[in-house]
Amino acid sequence: MVVVGLTATGLIVSGLRSGQRENAERVMDQRAEMAKSAVLTETARYESLLEATATGLATDSNMTWDDFDAATSSLANAGLKGASSVAFVVPATDAQIPATQARWRSRGADGLVLRPRGTGHEHYFSIFNRGLRSTGTTAGLDVSAARQPAEAMRDARRMSTPTVSDTYVLLRDRNLPAAQQQHSFVFAAPIWPRTADPQFRGWLLLGMRGQDFLSAVLAAVSQGQLNGELLATNTDGSRPVVAHYFVPGTPDMERQSLLDVADREWTLIIRADSGNLPGAHSPLPGLVLGGGIVLTLVIAGLVYVLASARSRAVARVEAATRELRQAERESRRQAVLLAAVMASISDGVGVIDEHGEFILHNPAAREMIGVDHDTSDTTAWQEHYGLFRPDGRTPFPHDELPLVRALRGESSNGVEILIRNPARPEGVLISFDGRPLDPSAGEPGAVAIYHDITELRRYENDLAVFAGVVAHDLKAPLTVIRGHCEELLEDSLQGGGPSHSLLRIVRAVDRMAAMIDTLLAYTTARDAPLNFVRVDLAALTDEVVQDRTGHLAEDAVPEVVVGPLPVVSADPAMLRHVLDNLIGNALKYVRPGAAARVEISADPVGEGWTRVGIADRGIGIPDADKPEVFERFHRAHADAGYAGTGLGLAICKRIVERHGGEIGVADNPGGGTRFHFTLPLEEYAMKIRPSKKEVSTDQADDEAREKLERALAERAAMENTRLPGLSALPSSAPSGGDPAGTRLRSPAPHHHPADAE
């Protein structure tokens, strides 16, 4: 068995190696032909491009530098591999040199100086040059000093066809170190005009570096597998090596090809290491040899394995049985622990499979929902469990249910659903978090966590009412104090007595009232319901500007420039507060003795959004304060004597973000500050959905909101009950306009640096 196996393996390996050698010879022929075609294609392209350019120049009897530049620009963009430069060369005898120099200077060869080499023979001067990979050669050189290009040019003029020179070192490369010099050659194309009595005009020379040319061509076709050697046949019969191209490996295969390039014959020698050619070398024979030996040994030992297999199999079964029993005990322990956890936690947990069948509903979840039995029909969940939106009236859509979304692979957080059914007639507000079931569970499905937030919402509403009532109770005595102070102020002014202390009391009362309103606005801006309606931003801005400047004398009215503003979708009361705060800041923070100037504009940003900008020429905001200017109680100019609470910009940020936008600040070019915020346009309104805090949860929420509005109305009524002398100072009540705007508007007393206490 061993002898037969090894003999068969040896024969197979021998056949595989023979096939690999044949495949290597075939691949070598293909690669050599590809290399030959690539070299011929490139040289033919150079020749045709040069000839076409020379033909084009021949049609221009008064060629200038601009004509040459336009004609040769295609050569610069053609990606000629190894090409160094292209030059226009003209013949001239010793007597013709001055006239030739003057003629070509007049045609754009500025500063041309023809430098002949020797006398008594025809000279070939370069007139125009364009470098293709670097700067071109110097104009005015006598190319006839180099034998190889001179012979190629004479042959080209004589035969009227492009020619190739013998190999030599380009004139421009002779100043390089010897290690960097390359064997090069030039293509020469004659420029003969197509007339009845043509007069020869010169040549178009294309310089080529042999090493760069061969390396670029073979790099594209050899794929790191072929060595290359290019030999040229010179006029004297010599065959110098023009260029080499090397790749790693030890070549053991060779192919030679003859190439016809213009009027010359080149030789391309391709060598390769057969081990690098695809299909010519593989580990298959070694694998077959190793596999055959291993297989033979395996078969030889099979008898022994079969003889002792039964006892080993029994031992393995017993070991596997012990592990299985241990795993089963651990699984039961984990299941009991999970069941105990599910029964103990206060949050509800529900798990369904891919068909909507409930796999798990812990006791807390059933207690919240109030339904003892489940249904697998997801479309009947709304009616079965009594699922409504937080308003308590709108049935919750089937496609938006957290578990249904989780089955689609979507995660959801804080989805509020009101559950009202016979077991929960008063309604329970539940917050749901839904997630797709982890694939490690072994089957698709979804899981949801339930949180009862009914009491939390009631607490938040009570807190809002408490804030409104506290604001009302604090403002009422302040209003009385202010009224009596104004009455005393009038009496002191009529009697000529001191009034400075009374003015300080009145201003202190105004600042405290503003602080109370600001704190109430800060709380309301976070929790008050949003009422998205159509808002004419231009009309609202004009109203805010009028409120801020209408009471000023004509010579004291600041310059306010309002550009075209769009119609947006927003809560008018909250948006009014943003505009009032930002415009008020622009009018407030000005340098002493300087007049305020405010620019209000809007630009589209993104799809369905607009960016509103409010720029001023004020004192600006230091760079260190910009990142924190929207934080609560942060004041950038507290040390400069400007009054403020540090909450205005924080309120603006809350309001803008609740509208789905962004707010920022930057320096205004020319001085001052530029605030900007984004709002949804009216046509984009349907894409804006109220957040979970922007929807009243049930009838108790409606009652809480009514209490808050009633407290604010009572406060406004008390402020408008003017005591004697109250009309002498600015009113704290907002001016006319949208009544809804009074909820978030704080009194706007005249802004000035705080008085020294």
Automatic annotation (TrEMBL):
Keyword rRNA-binding attached: no
Domain of life (superkingdom): Bacteria
Keywords: ATP-binding, Coiled coil, Kinase, Membrane, Nucleotide-binding, Phosphoprotein, Transferase, Transmembrane, Transmembrane helix, Two-component regulatory system
Listed GO MF terms: ATP binding; phosphorelay response regulator activity; phosphorelay sensor kinase activity; protein kinase activator activity
Record domain CHASE: where: 140-222
Predominant place of localization: membrane
Region (Disordered): 690-757
Coiled-coil spans in chain: 310-337
Gene Ontology terms: cellular component: plasma membrane
Catalytic activity: ATP + protein L-histidine = ADP + protein N-phospho-L-histidine
Compositionally biased residues, Basic and acidic residues: 691-717
Subcellular location, record wording: Cell membrane
SMART domains in alphabetical order: CHASE, HATPase_c, HisKA
Biased composition (Low complexity): 718-741
EC number: 2.7.13.3
UniProt name for this protein: Sensor-like histidine kinase SenX3
